[in-house]
Design brief:
This protein is mainly alpha-helical. The protein has one domain. It has six helices and no strands. Helix 1 packs antiparallel against helix 2, helix 1 runs antiparallel to helix 6 and helix 3 packs antiparallel against helix 6. The longest helix has 26 residues. It is globular and about 55 Å long. The N and C termini lie far apart (37 Å).
């Protein structure tokens, strides 16, 4: 049986609320403006780290930004230049993305799904700008403002 304590309930409510707020901002920018797409499916799982576990190394801005960027880039390269069946491309692209995140020390687990999203959606290089770069910057700015200034947490870690 799970024991729900007051601190656990508070943490869950805060994480859920600010996750919904952040994804809401991206969704409004995507569907209520003409500025383009700002939302990626993998940003949903980034919320778990940014607002539930901001002290995690995986939630730090460098990891979030470069993790999403590199894995999405891998997906774009595979979808545009590697002429293999989709089931092989997806598998190898995810492995290559994980390899690069670990090699360059900017691991952000939610970004591991980006090659799948990119390949299934046949995304172009434009996908790297919107939603990946601009969306990542927006979620990081919101996470820094909320965690550091509103919730008074040590985020980002120094």
């Amino acid at each position: 049986m799970i024991k729900i304590t007051k601190p656990l309930l508070q943490k869950a409510l805060i994480a859920g609320f600010f996750s919904a707020f952040t994804i809401g901002v991206l969704t409004v920018l995507t569907y209520k403006s003409t500025l383009g797409y700002f939302i990626a499916a993998s940003f949903g799982s980034s919320m778990v780290l940014l607002f539930g576990f901001p002290e995690s190394p995986f939630a730090q801005p460098k990891n979030v930004f470069f993790g999403h960027l590199v894995t999405a880039l891998v997906g774009v390269i595979f979808v545009n230049y590697i002429p293999l069946p989709i089931y092989i491309n997806i598998a190898i692209a995810v492995g290559a993305g994980v390899f690069l995140m670990i090699l360059f020390n900017f691991v952000h687990p939610p970004a591991g799904g980006n090659p799948i999203i990119v390949i299934i959606g046949s995304a172009s290089y434009d996908y790297l700008i919107n939603p990946i770069i601009f969306g990542s910057i927006i979620i990081l700015l919101i996470a820094i403002i909320i965690n550091k200034y509103l919730l008074k947490k040590n985020y980002p870690l120094k």
